[in-house]
Specification:
Layout: H1 3-30, H2 36-63, H3 81-106, H4 110-134
Amino acid sequence: MDSQEMIKLLNSAISLEYGAAIQYSQNSVLLQGTYREVHSGFFGDMSNDSFSHARKLGKYVVGLGGIPTVEPAPIKQTTDLTEMLEFGLEIETAALATYTRGVEMAEDDIPFRVLLEDMSLEEYNHQLELKKILGKLSLQVPDAIKEVRLKQA
């Protein structure tokens, strides 16, 4: 594994996480209307997760002899809930791509590979949750299971 290239990748990921943390935090306070109570907490939790990811990655940058970035990725602002969710999906997709690239770069360096695989899983789950909220998954229920009956014990 090339340590300097890994530092660059981790700093890129930190930047995305800082941007996400700020963006989600802003969403949680800007959101108004019927869905505020439900989604404000969701955005707050996502912000906390992103900041936690940035801190974790920063420890590994220092471990490689680098300095963690303090620059956030571009932050998109809106007062529209659907746009907030779409912007969140964009940043989660970018983070997943970054971590996936990092897994390949880690090669046989097990600690970095595991770190980046774990981060990939977390970003995938965030991405999946946003897709569900946005109704972007196409679910096919076979006719055979449209009606489910419980058997008597």
